[in-house]
Amino acid sequence: MKEKKTPLYDRHIDLGGNVVNFGGFLLPTQYSGINQEHNAVRSKAGIFDVSHMGEFIISGSDAEKFLQKITVNDVSSLSKGEAQYSAMCFKNGGIVDDLLIYKKENVFMLVVNAANLENDLEWLKSHQEGDVKIEDISDKIGLIAVQGPRSRAILQTLTDTTLSNIQFYHFAEGRVGGKEAMIARTGYTGELGFEIYSSANEIGEIWDAIMDAGTDKGLEPAGLGCRDTLRMEMKFALYGNDIDETTNPIEAGLGWITKLGKADFIGKDAFLYAKANVTRRLVCLEMTERAIPRNGCPILMNDEIVGTITSGTMSPSLEKGIGIGYVNVPFHKSGTELIVDIRGKMKSAIVVKPPFYKNGSLMD
Amino acid sequence: MNTPDHLLYTEEHEWADYKDDVVVIGITDYAQSQLGDVIFIELPDVGDEINLGDAFGEIEAVKTVSELFAPISGTITEVNEALDDSPEKVNSDPFDEGWLIKVTPSNPEEKDELMNFLSYEEFVS
Hints:
CATH superfamily of chain B: RNA polymerase II/Efflux pump adaptor protein, barrel-sandwich hybrid domain
Largest sheet of chain A: 6 strands, mixed
Oligomer: heterodimer
Number of helices of chain A: 8
Largest interface: A-B, 16 and 12 residues
Shape of chain A: globular
Radius of gyration of chain B: 13 Å
Low-confidence stretches of chain A: none
Largest sheet of chain B: 6 strands, antiparallel
Shape of chain B: globular
CATH class of the largest domain in chain A: Alpha Beta
Strand order of the largest sheet of chain B: 1-2-3-9-8-5
Mean pLDDT of chain B: 94
CATH architecture of the largest domain in chain A: 2-Layer Sandwich
Structural class of chain B: alpha+beta
Distance between the termini of chain B: 10 Å
Strand content of chain B: 25-35%
Number of strands of chain B: 9
Strand order of the largest sheet of chain A: 11-12-13-10-4-14
Radius of gyration of chain A: 20 Å
CATH class of chain B: Mainly Beta
Number of domains of chain A: 3
């Protein structure tokens, strides 16, 4: 596969980013270091290039009906200017992708994982019905996430839109640094933060303006590495690790986005069954000794395998090894002491309530 | 990237510094930059024997874990205990304070198999 560059590629190189191929995109894993960037986002602010994400515009008079059928959350509850976390699932309940839906004036914008873009598009098109248009605008859109307790103060210097009026999971159309942009109060870090969608041609100037505005407020460029550690501390699922076509949203802890009261939608029967017959749960595991669980590590209870780690890292905030993984019922309950087999070494862990990191500025 | 010219290198991104009767071993600047922030390093004990190409320890970074492969065979005479409390020295000073182990080599011919700094620079470029 030919590697794609995001519109901000040259800036990552200039900033000394360690650029790697991530799902077909050349993106930085880190600039100064994962811990430093992670801590900057938790205590001040970080700026991320997330232009690799895919964007689709769904329009037409049957757009809402179509999305109501193909996604698990309740699209009819969305008002203009609101965003919703949702998923598309197979009939058997497995997850096609998790996504964000933004309701704009007459259209919906879907934001999907870069690695699933082609599959998602195919899935959407194979269910297209009535007056529905599906347009992939991913290559035309650049996306920057500014996350951290100081994100709002930094961005406010660059826009006339009153950012404190944008509630969590809401957005406004406006300007940032003089360029047209959609300013959304969404993110993947657990901190107060914004995601700024703009044209791929202008996103670079927006990046520069934010970097300038943020230097004296401790803003740091942040890479994929800390994006992952930040989301793990919040137990935000990552497609391909914690959720995929073999997991359903109920066991993944995404029951809250799966609206079983909705009229027929793809996967509903499977979710009703899954809800009544949950066999495993995605849980948070905190290591109680010095060790770091990694994706694929078996989880044991009394020498028997009762689960698998799906994501793991050293938590920069907790300074402990943490993992997310599926654990068979009833060992999923918080307080349960389990063993993680880390490359043949048996290490103790305990199931804890999510999120791992509880002091996020998300709701400020 | 820093590649000191007095050291010898492996394809597994380790360096070896041949002193009089002991060889100091560590990982390269390139290796530490690819690993990112190092958090734990698991090293063998003094007196243990290591064999060329075998894993002798693990280096764990925030996002990844990597095995350490012996660049030569020999007996461990010293391990860098300072890394227990300050593993970040491997990131900040991989060729000096971030050294890992010292070894008395058991097979002098293995030295010839290692790369010089020019070959290593070419290898990682």
